[in-house]
Amino acid sequence: MNLARKESGTSVRGRIKQTKRGRPALRRQLFLLAARWCMTRGLYRSEYLALRARNGGAKTSAMCAIARKLVPLLLHIMQTGEAFDEMRWCAVHDRVPSRAA
After folding, report:
1. Span 60-98, pLDDT tens digits
2. Which of 16, 28, 69, 81 has fewest C-beta within 10 Å?
């Protein structure tokens, strides 16, 4: 989930793109999962908006940062075989559940 920009000397006008390091299918799935969790009612929506505000509205870098944060969560779920529990996740990480009302 690295980002790179084509640069040549003093020219830094290239678009920031995701690098091709790592497994393509895993990168894609992480990016899609991050996109889902950054939607209006997603768990990481507030962090996504904060990252965009901090980085001048850069959507790709904010989405990749969220995707990188999901890796430990997914690894834990895969290693323990536990089902994902949104309420427990929110309690541990001081978040407000997205469906709270």
Report:
1. 888 888 998 888 888 888 898 888 877 777 776 666 555
2. 81
Report CA-CA distances (Å) from 15 to 12, 37, 59, 76: 9, 24, 12, 34
Choose among 57, 58, 73: nearest CA to 3: 58
Residue 83, phi-psi category: left (phi > 0), alpha (psi -120 to 50), beta (remainder):
beta
> pTM value?
0.70
* Structural domains counted in the chain: 1
Please check whether residue 84 lies inside any domain of the structure: no
Structural domain containing residue 51: 3-69
